[in-house]
Design brief:
Six copies of one chain form a homohexamer. Chain A is mainly alpha-helical and 107 residues long. Chain A has a domain at 38-105: AhpD-like (Up-down Bundle), CATH 1.20.1290. In chain A, 66% of the residues lie in helices and 0% in strands. Chain A contains five helices and no strands. Chain A has helices at residues 17-31, 39-52, 59-68, 73-87, 89-105. The interface between A and B is medium-sized, with 28 and 28 residues.
Chain lengths: 107, 107, 107, 107, 107, 107
């Protein structure tokens, strides 16, 4: 983490620079780049984890990011439906509402 | 659900027959069979959701089932590592311990 | 699930028709109709689970639905207070805020 | 809380006497005794909250206590099945396993 | 709880007077006043628990209260960063957003 | 993370070497070493987060580690009691049971 290359600052840089650096360098710079799982697979499991944990604020970004990584809208809807059984209907219900908005904004 | 075909009974049949029937007919009979997501994808998101929610009792079955559905051990370990960032290190730590046992049993 | 009767469409029908059908036919069509628990009992446990899991988006509907199923406002407030001990004060605090709004809207 | 009557000590008294006193005097001494909800209702919502939150260590006591408070085994199984939809199949699956043991021990 | 002194009413008094009384007398009147942990320590662990559990509605009050109890803004940001590892990045991300607002309001 | 210094291997090295390296280098090597919070403070919030999230497998290590970092047993018990109010009685109850064992083992 003593990397001296300039990395793009992320959304936490203003008040949480250390967390921001970890996010940019470790989470997005290393973990998401590891070849052991494709980015499509990583997006699938990230979206699943966010739905299951009711992380409502982070879901919009990752629903969009998942589409950039090759997950289709139909697949995202199917992830939500699958999660109804593995995290409960309320988690799926909230995810449907968020997905509806995210999809509408970029149509 | 008034299907008169005999379906295999599942693990809840002894004391929770209604839940068992829903599990066999709806969850495994319908949801897992829907073509909108491959079984490999469904296993990936199921394992992610179990790790993220610390569902320690259900994780062994789904780590094995995921392998039947084409997820490799290296990929499962990578899912766990990815979940360290999306559900916290403790969730990943427990999943490593469970995976170690599951992998050892079937070596 | 090969039922050919027309069922009312629910709130997920626009983007998640499969989940919507499961909701209408299985969750509301079968589970809530099973006689093993009264609808009042089902509403009590549903509201408790929503409070305990901080499912803030689904709580308004179920606070209203519980009243239709015979749970009084005083009982709903008591469920919230009981949950303070079984899911923590923050979960109860948020539920009080939601109940206050729901009750005010239908006075 | 300045009650000078001797109260029975509870299970936390050895290492957490303050929590034990709060448990005996406030939680069981006051909250469970409030007439706004019957003990049967309180047991229903407590069991639901424990299942939904995967509180595996506390569930055995409350499955037994619920029966003392008038909830039948069939009703407890139905609570678990209902929770499959409101907290996910894994939570219900674990609860079935715990209920099976609890019921077997007291047959 | 047979205290006859007038205590200040809290935010739940309008619709949940029993919970309000427990909050004022037991939680804030007793627990927060116990000398076994300083108020600064209690604020640290309360904020940590709220972040970890994604209790988004209660976090603003406790971020302010923590500052009254001697936790600095830099320390609060560090708690959030630490929680990224113990509860996942999404929990930390949401906490950063809330802290940003809370800090801005009282600058 | 291209550090060529040898670091001690941790408990995940056998099957999850990448996660192990992140744990040793980033979590324990950097985050726990940052001076913005004392190690005592970090232990307090870590234990609180583990209790609140019912991370039963990780709690024993961190109850011991907290004592190494200067948190007394009485303070740990008080953290548990405080968490009863912020994460619910069941989470505290399980933590008492774990603390009892951990304390007994090292008496």
């Amino acid at each position: 983490m003593t990397d001296t290359n300039q990395k793009a600052q992320g959304p936490f840089a203003d008040i949480a620079p250390a967390l921001d650096q970890l996010t940019q360098q470790v989470l997005f710079g290393e973990v998401w780049e590891r070849g052991e799982l494709s980015k499509r697979d990583r997006s699938l499991i990230t979206v699943a984890a966010l739905i299951a944990q009711y992380r409502i604020n982070e879901l919009p970004f990752h629903l969009k990011f998942a589409q950039q990584n090759g997950v289709t809208r139909d697949e995202l809807v199917e992830v939500i439906s699958h999660m109804a059984f593995y995290a409960g209907w309320p988690a799926a219900s909230t995810a449907v509402g968020i997905a509806r908005k995210v999809f509408a904004e970029s149509t």
